[in-house]
Amino acid sequence: MSIGGQLFGIPVLKVQDVLGSQTITRVPLAPVEVAGSLNLRGRIVTAVDVRLRLGLPKRENDKAAMSVVVEHEGELYSLLVDSVGEVLSLETRDYQRNPPTLNPRLREFSDGIYRLNDSLLVVLSVSSLLNFGNRADAA
């Protein structure tokens, strides 16, 4: 998946579904990164704007977000991203810990990286992305 031109990945076993643009209802007093909630086959799912969570600017209004639905601690969450690509099969030996030069904000939400032929894939930590408990402004 891509967010702000950067390639990201989530372990495939964490992904429950991938959806196109969805109707999202804003949740009052929620952190700014929480875009709202959506209805997924009768279940209410919290939608988190990963762009904002990573400290990137808001998505342009004419650009529709894709939803990557993940399960975390028994609940479903929709991670809003710019685009979703293919499923990659990567070798464990190619996995690397976060380099010290990685942006500190990315490092906060990353489990590690893979260096691909022409780009860097940052492996997102779903639990870190969804941990709002240590923030003073979390609702």
From TrEMBL:
Coiled coil: none
Matching Pfam families: CheW
PROSITE patterns, sorted: CHEW
Cross-referenced SUPFAM superfamilies: CheW-like
Annotated InterPro entries: CheW, CheW-like_dom_sf, CheW-lke_dom
The CheW-like domain, residue ranges: 1-135
UniProt cross-references to PANTHER family, sorted A to Z: CHEMOTAXIS PROTEIN CHEW (PTHR22617:SF23), CHEMOTAXIS SENSOR HISTIDINE KINASE-RELATED (PTHR22617)
Protein name, UniProt field: Chemotaxis protein CheW
Organism listed in the record: Dongia sedimenti
